[in-house]
Amino acid sequence: MTSTRYVALLRGINVGRANRLPMQTLRELLARVGATDARTHLQSGNAVFTHEEEDPLRIAGDLQQAIAEELGLTIACLVRSGTDLRRVAEANPFPMEGIDGSRFLVVFLSGPPPLDRLATIDPEAYAPDTFRAGEREIYAHFPDTIRDSRLAGLFTDRWLGMTATSRNWNTVGKLVELSAG
Description:
single chain, alpha+beta, Alpha-Beta Plaits, 2 domains, four-stranded antiparallel sheet, 8 strands, about 30% helix
């Protein structure tokens, strides 16, 4: 049986005092659900690993359950194959020349973007911030600030109606690199 490289994207861990999850514990939990060669990036819930399971949804569910059982935390987790993460990077509709990668987000989604909701956003009302929908992600540029952006505040589970977790472009690039081998 062949193994696939995956990337786990956990939402909302190690932000302030809530949802503390040491990266060593995350690697151990990944091993418990059958992952091998697990590596973490930063302290914000990014892990690259190999797994024999072909269904990333099953891996995400198993990892969420392991976190709940071990730590009593309810943490949303999205798992993408390394191949899919490369697709996300290659499909970026923005010309990245001159764009600060720390002010450019990829909002990873649990399903296709809700185009009906996104269509209700008046681009002029949020300028200079802008976004484009992808296959299972939203690409968003915040030239001034992400923290104070009203547009960034829309890209939440509640508003989108699905699980969403964001990574800046610099982190996406590093995860693509790590998941390549």
